[in-house]
Amino acid sequence: MTLTLLRTPTRILSRPVAALAALAAAAGPVVAQPSPGEGLAVFSPVTWERLVDAANEPHNWLMYNGTLDSQRFSRLDQIDSANVGQLELKWAHHIPQLDRAETTPLVVDGVMFITESPSNVVAVDAVTGRPFWRYDHPLPDDLRLCCGRNNRGVAILGETLYMSTLDAHLVAIDGRSGSVVWNREVADYRSGYSKTEAPLIVKDQVVTGIAGGEYGIRGFLDSYDADTGERLWRTDTIPGPDHPDNRSWAGDSWRTGGAPTWITGSYDPELNLVYWGTGNPGPDWNGAVRRGDNLYSDSVLALNGDTGEMAWYFQFTPHDEHDWDAIQVPVLADIELDGETRKAMLWANRNGFYYTLDRETGEFLLGKPFAKQTWAEGLDGNGRPIRRPNTAPSQEGTLVSPMAGGATNWWSPAYSPRTNLLYVNAFDGEAIFFSRDEDYQEGDNFTGGGTETPLPIEHYHSAIRAIDPTTGDVRWEFPITPRSRAGVLATAGDLVFSASIDGYFYALDARTGAPLWHISLGGPVHAQPMTYAVNGQQYVTMTIGNTLYTFGLGD
Amino acid sequence: MGTRCGIRWTAVALLAALTSGAAPVVTVAQDTENPYISRLDVRAGRQLFQARCSTCHGLNAAGGNESTGPDLTTGRFRHADSDAGLFRVIRDGVRSTAMLGLGADADEQSIWQLVTYLRSVDVTAGGTPTGSAAAGRQLFTGTGGCDRCHMVNGQGQRLGPDLSTVGERRALAELETALVNPDAEVLPRWWTMKATGPDGQVVEGLRMDEDTFTFRIMDADQQLRAFSKYGGWTWERVQRSTMPGYADTFTAAERNDLVAYLFSLRSEP
Asked: CB distance A481–B212 less than 8 Å?
């Protein structure tokens, strides 16, 4: 509608900015943009070309993980290891609804879009944090939510934002005013579906996943026409009975097998492949009722960017009984392996293993544990785990590492092409896993057991780990006490930003892991840092507790 | 309420073990022990109870003015003297009363979880003390010198947990263990941090709190001290208890008295 009109001039508007930014990235800190403080109209529509080229306009953060390859690496380098100690608070934005704040804001030409609990979005001036508009999505009061009322962010195309909502809708919102452009039901929330993830734009489509792995849903990944909201394709993450892989589910268990898609994936424009992780099979802890590998739960799927047809899949944890969702962000990077440049995918999995895959074919290239794990002897030549006996959940309880929350979780890692390291938030935990009988009731919790952590959290070790994707070795680690639920950001200033559960925001030296700066901001952290620049000033933003804080260097 | 439930758990497990040893005479559930006794099952049992039983027995199984069913938290049942007996009552009900039971088709797991839940709300689960609380009190402030470290109702010192309401938090067996084997369970709050400064000076104290960048302790003089982990100090965690064990210091009878005193320490009389 409005979009078609607005997309055309975008190229003209955005190109000079992008070109300048590219220049600046080569020469030093990015400086070129208009200054919103002086009343200029700055928000120009975000074309698909701009999204493909997002790395070249590092003053903007145009999608959930920064760029389509999800490296969460910013070319901004004004803040670097020499001056990071001088960071100061520029502004803070308070989120009125109290729940886990899991948002990663976007910044487009000086305007920041922040999602809030439960399914709201607010547009603010990125220099001052003061609002332009807000949209509060109306919700029913009988939502089916495993893990709180939260939302992780929006996607943008043209000047329309796309947001998932807890009642399993996808909403298109006008970026200048906050008006609803269209509102589409993706699935029936009463059956246990919900939506929390930031969608991913692929060309003129909004690609988006679903949550509900604890409610016996059958997962899928959807694509919608960005203009009209019409559904273009749906790929089930559990194949139907007409497909041979359906036999990886005993009996009818595939119908309630879970495999949700609740974290944003990545896209490779050259290969035209969408990459997306899938969650645990259901019921989580009782595998006896769903014998088989349970395809394609706990996998990464590579789908054709136009049709959603599957090119390949790689299953990290066949027949998972520990709730180890492969809900991590697929990090796409070209790396040198045995003298060859490989189009790789880097993946530190919730099951405790790190994997380097070939992203053209899905071939397993290498893998090894990056955190404490006790359930597998290792990975075989195809990357399939060699399970140890007696590690399945049981009636009386089975002690296994990692814990259900995983060796890592949905927290985005970051990859720096300057250091060639993948930075991962890792946890060496353990849990006692119990298995129980449970009947499926539509819309009810369906987990088949539960877990307990035997010791207080202080007994376990947590760290930011820097993994070399060519070997899987951990190069350095920065210990965190007691643990962290935050994502990671890497920058051309050779910094790694992250946060810890007890409210520290900090910066590490990307090469050594040495702590260079930290500030205690008090609240628990469930979000990920991002960076942007306006008018030549670089900012870093992190949500801590229910407040979003933005820092920059002094004038 | 939350903590109380969690800590009670040990006692429940103990009791479940005890009762199953008492060879129940009923012929249900193959006379087996209750196989579903984890905290998870307490939770599941509570959920079931609140959905299926609370209209008559009250939300927390304690009966009440409005309810027609009896209080189920007293630790004594007229129709059952074991876990297996409870299983039978819950499945088959009590003949000619409003207590219908879940029926022969009900699944065993749910029934056992209800039994586990009922054991967890048993107010007498940990047993009652045999010693003399008055004598224990004498030992506490006298030869025991417990108040060198512990505070009770504002009297004593700060080098151990405040014991003013310890009787609510701990079962008898746990109190006995605390006396004879302090290292058995040391909460992180009572670990020791040993910090060594740039000039080799050593400062030690109880670990009041620790995070990624700092930690805070109380030293032996009960002074509060704060340290930065990256300010030139190194540090070490000692996860043992600073409380001496009293297995040899006191006779079993004296320990019983101490336990009786500790057990009497409650917010409500």
From this structure: yes
